[in-house]
Amino acid sequence: MNIKELDPESSPQAAFGARLRSAREEAGLTQDELADRMGYSSTHLSSVETGRKSPTLRLARSADTALGTGNAFERAWRVVRNLGLLEGFPQFVDVEGRAAEIRLYEVGVVPGLLQTPEYATVLADSALKRGAITNDQARECVTLVAERQSALIRTPAPLVFAVLDESCICRPIGEPAVMNAQLDRLIEFADLPNTVLQVAPFAMGARRPFDLPVTVLTLPDRSLLSYAESAQHGHLERESAFVLPILTAYHQLQAEALSQAESVAMIQQVRKGTR
Q1: One domain for residues 31 and 106
Q2: How does pLDDT run across 197-233, given as a tens digit for each residue?
Q3: Residue 251: CA atoms inside 13 Å, Cβ hemisphere, count?
C-alpha cells in the first residue's frame, strides 16, 4: 500500500491528519477498523489523515472517543478551525502543547498561558468593540486560552519559564476585581513546582534584550523553536542558527530580571496598591 508522506508542520490540517494516523497506528488499528468505530467510511478517514479533507468537530470528538485520547483531537480541531488567530499562531499552539520546556517573555499584557478566564474575556471583548474580531472569534479566543492551559496539565509536566515586563502587572485590565484575581493567579503560578516567574522591571532600561514578546520552545527531542509576532503575522522559527541567539538573549534577560521572590513581592505590592 502506498502511504502518503505528510509534513505535520505544513499546516494545522496536516498536523491533525498526521496525529490521527499516528494515534491509530499506536492503537494497532487499520483505517477500516478505526473508521468503523468512529462511524465514518475508511475513504473519508483516509482523506482526513492525508490532509485532503478538513476535520469536523464531530469527527474530532469521535476520534477522541474511539482512541481514548481525552479531548486531544478536539483541541487540535480548534487549531484547524483557526478563528481570530494570527497567521502562524495555530502551528505554534500545536507545538506548544507538546513542548518539554517553554520560555516566554511578554510585554503589556499577561500571556495567555497565565491568564484567568475573566482577564482573557476582557481582552477579547475589547478587540470585539474595536471591530478587530467577530463575536464567534471572541468566544474562540477565550476558549483557546483555556485549552492551551489544559494542554499543559500532563505527565511529565513541561517546565515553564515566564518573564513578564513590569507593564504586564501595572497595566490595569478590566475592573479591579479582574486585575486582582489575575495577579493572584500569577502568584499561584510562581508557586508551582515546574514553573519560574520573573518580572523585568522598567529600571532594566536598555539592558532588556527584547522589545517585543518572544517564546522559545524545547521539544522532547531537545530541538528548539522560537515564536514571535508582528501586528499581522506570527512566525515559528525552526532553524537553530536563528533560535540559539534568541535563547542566549533569553538567558541574559533572566539574569537581569528580578528573582522569583522579588518578582512575587512586587506583584503583591501592586495587588495591595502599595506601589
Answers
A1: no
A2: 999 999 999 999 999 999 999 999 999 999 998 766 7
A3: 5
